[in-house]
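Q: Please design a sequence for this.
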């Protein structure tokens, strides 16, 4: 499959790179140290159309394509992965509402999170249900014209912000004939009675991306806040996660490219024994490996995004791209620190912050082990 970016996509890359360098880079260290959500950046990004880029214009989006959104996240993460994650996590909630919500739900909840007024979140993971999403314990029961929700969630991005908007929550609504949980998705407005936030979680990376706990104690929402059909929630979420794997991979690609750019700049400026670091062959080889991995990851991710845009199956490709890009991002971040020496382990240097960010990427949207499980199933099935 040939990958040739359009003139518009090239302009989008240039625009987002300039935005990231001008708005994010100067405050990235401050955001990291303070673990504060980038409200101003989020708002400005929303005004540029970044949050709603791949969504329909009639609900506040830009009507763009997913390949372009992949490029957007790549360029944001090249400077700061935590900021990029705010846009990525928002897209998970937006996709579920856009793909499965009624016209009323779309009109009520999509415009604010696609224009930067609010930020959306998705509540799937629980203390005992991470990769095994079918094991969630949060419940929803129908009482008259209302759903009553009880339970908790953990590791939820974009939670407990001043501008947190709707949260899409997965809950058990019954049992299937085989005894497995029947899971459904619901849109829960921020601030509804019984919906509270727990502690803010401290992470080794993504420190400017708020991550926390959610608690639901007799939360009542209208009957029509169910997304799609009852019992189809897990299928809905898994389809959204396949797209999320492309986007997580895009953020990993941003880390690889950022590691290359920072390492090259440092090598050109730093001299040892009278020579710039660029004169040392072993360090040249490290750059070569990072550049090769960036090129391969870019091809894989762009192909997966193009398949999605064309309406073709992309589950296997998204898992391959996510697996490769995130593991190579970890390698690149590690190598960048090595190249920077003592400076590399100081948090004021972006390479040190990127190292923690890269590790997070190997975990979220399915660990590397989960990706290998998915890929192997496709290979064995001959698909």
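A: Design:
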């Amino acid at each position: 499959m040939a990958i040739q970016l359009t003139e518009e996509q090239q302009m989008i890359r240039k625009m987002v790179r300039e935005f990231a360098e001008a708005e994010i880079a100067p405050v990235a260290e401050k955001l990291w140290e303070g673990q504060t959500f980038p409200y101003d950046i989020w708002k400005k990004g929303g005004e540029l159309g970044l949050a709603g880029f791949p969504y329909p214009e009639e609900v506040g989006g830009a009507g763009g394509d997913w390949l372009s959104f992949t490029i957007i996240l790549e360029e944001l993460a090249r400077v700061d992965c935590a900021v990029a994650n705010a846009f990525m996590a928002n897209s998970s909630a937006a996709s579920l509402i856009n793909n499965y919500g009624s016209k009323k739900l779309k009109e009520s909840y999509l415009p604010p999170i696609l224009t930067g007024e609010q930020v959306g979140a998705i509540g799937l993971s629980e203390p005992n249900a991470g990769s095994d999403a079918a094991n969630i314990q949060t419940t929803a029961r129908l009482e008259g014209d209302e759903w009553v929700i009880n339970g908790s969630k953990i590791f939820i991005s974009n939670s407990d912000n001043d501008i947190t908007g709707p949260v899409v929550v997965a809950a058990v609504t019954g049992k299937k004939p085989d005894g497995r949980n029947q899971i459904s998705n619901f849109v829960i407005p921020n601030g509804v009675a019984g919906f509270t936030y727990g502690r803010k979680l401290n992470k080794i990376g993504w420190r400017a991306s708020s991550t926390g706990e959610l608690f639901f104690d007799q939360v009542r929402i209208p009957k029509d806040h169910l997304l799609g059909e009852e019992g189809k929630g897990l299928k809905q979420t898994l389809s959204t996660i396949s797209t999320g794997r492309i986007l997580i991979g895009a953020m990993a690609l941003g880390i690889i490219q950022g590691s290359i750019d920072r390492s090259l700049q440092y090598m050109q400026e730093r001299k040892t024994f009278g020579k710039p670091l660029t004169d040392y062959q072993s360090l040249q080889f490290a750059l070569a490996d990072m550049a090769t991995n960036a090129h391969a990851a870019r091809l894989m991710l762009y192909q997966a995004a193009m398949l999605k845009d064309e309406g073709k199956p992309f589950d296997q490709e998204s898992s391959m791209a996510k697996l490769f890009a995130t593991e190579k991002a970890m390698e690149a971040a590690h190598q960048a620190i090595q190249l920077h020496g003592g400076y590399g382990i100081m948090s004021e240097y972006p390479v040190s912050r990127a190292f923690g960010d890269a590790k997070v990427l190997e975990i979220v949207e399915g660990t590397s082990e989960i990706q290998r499980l998915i890929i192997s199933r496709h290979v064995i099935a001959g698909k």
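Q: Thanks. Anything notable?
A: The domain at 120-231 is CATH 2.40.110.10 (Butyryl-CoA Dehydrogenase, subunit A; domain 2). The first strand starts at residue 119 and ends at 123.
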